[in-house]
Amino acid sequence: MNKSLSRSIGFWLLLVVSLIATAIGGWLIAGQIGTMTTTLLDGTATGIEVYVGQSLVVVGAGVLAAGIVGILLTLALVAARSLVPVAAPAVVEPIDWSAQTPDAPASASAPVEVKEAPAAAEAFATTDETTPDTTSETAAPTAPSNGTDDGETTPPITR
């Protein structure tokens, strides 16, 4: 598969989501640390601001870490893709239409004789010899006669 990263939706989605996660995580951490610092230095901090603020900082740190891991994965993909050699495009020479002369024999346009293979001819033959007689093989079976017929060789079933 010869697909560049710039055309991959997964690559761009990873990059954008990672950048958004990094920004949201940083915003959560900065906002809560700022609020906690201000209220603790003023002496007006409540238990909700301090303890909930700490929990939100931990959540923000997790989101920030996920964003950083995503950005690192994006960079690793770019580095790995740069190590994979790209196939060189095939150089096609232009066709020189002046080299073809109208006096040349048209060997390519001459009709080609096709001989039918003998096996193929036999496979499609519709003679009476090749069609099997299916009347005797597909006849409906007769009811069992408990061994009383002259030609039957199996003994009757007794209990």
Walk me through what this model shows.
The chain has helices at 9-42, 47-83, 118-123. The model has no long low-confidence stretch (mean pLDDT 77). The protein is mostly helical and 159 residues long. The two termini are 72 Å apart. 48% of the residues lie in helices and 0% in strands. It has a domain at 23-82.
Outline the secondary-structure elements:
Blueprint lengths: L8 H34 L4 H37 L34 H6 L36
Helix pairs in contact: 1-2
List keywords for this structure.
mainly alpha, 3 helices, membrane, 159 residues, transmembrane helix
SSE pattern: HHH
Largest sheet: none
Rg from Cα: 43 Å
Helix proportion of residues, in percent? 40-55%
Number of helices: 3
Terminal Cα span: 72 Å
Total strand count, please?
0
Organism: Microbacterium algeriense
Transmembrane segments: 12-30, 50-78
Region (Disordered): 98-159
Keywords: Membrane, Transmembrane, Transmembrane helix
What is shown here, in short?
This protein has 159 residues and is mainly alpha-helical. The protein is built from three helices and no strands. This is Dinucleotide-utilizing enzyme.
